[in-house]
Amino acid sequence: MTDADAVRETLTDLVQASARLVQAIRRITRDNGSDESIATWRTLGVLQRSGPLRVGALADASQVAQPTMTKLVSGLVDRGWVERLPDSADARASQIGISDAGTTALREWRAELASVLLPYFGDLSARDLDALRRTVSLVDTHIAGIEPAQIQEVAS
Fold it and tell me: HTH marR-type domain: which residues (predicted)?
């Protein structure tokens, strides 16, 4: 097996494991009676990482249709989790930005989720935990060149 083949195989395994983790998060969220969809948290996370975006760019980044995002944004505005901001590039348009309350809600949801997942990962050795931290860091570093470009491309 070549190095490129090993990387491809490992990346495939990582994507599959990540998908299973997201599925588990969906079950946990549903089973804990959360009224919020994963799309809500994903949208807040996108806004936290990217800063304010137009609705169309936010829909693409959050992987939902624009009418769905428009409805989602309306609910998030009502909760005070996002705010409509003027678009400096176009006075007729607005951007959506995460509010302090949205940042707090996202942080609390992530903490709750981590607490629920802890029993499944609490037996990690220090070495395994370090490997997991390095994996997260590597993935973040390598996708950093992809994600912002996609968000910026969609926003323009």
Answer: 7-141
d(CA 112, CA 108): 6
CA 67 → CA 56, 72, 73, 81, 98, distances in Å?
Answer: 9, 9, 10, 19, 19
Residue ranges in the chain whose pLDDT is less than 50: 148-150, 152-156
- pLDDT tens profile 37-53: 888 999 999 999 889 99
DSSP letter assigned to residue 53: B
Q: Decide if 72 contacts 42 (C-beta within 8 A).
A: no
Q: Tell me the residue type at 49.
A: R
Domain map (residue ranges) of the chain: 1-35, 36-155
Q: Which fold does the domain 36-155 belong to in CATH? A: Arc Repressor Mutant, subunit A (1.10.10)
pLDDT tens-digit readout, 80-98: 999 999 988 887 889 999 9
Structural contact between residues 22 and 38, judged by C-beta atoms closer than 8 angstroms = yes
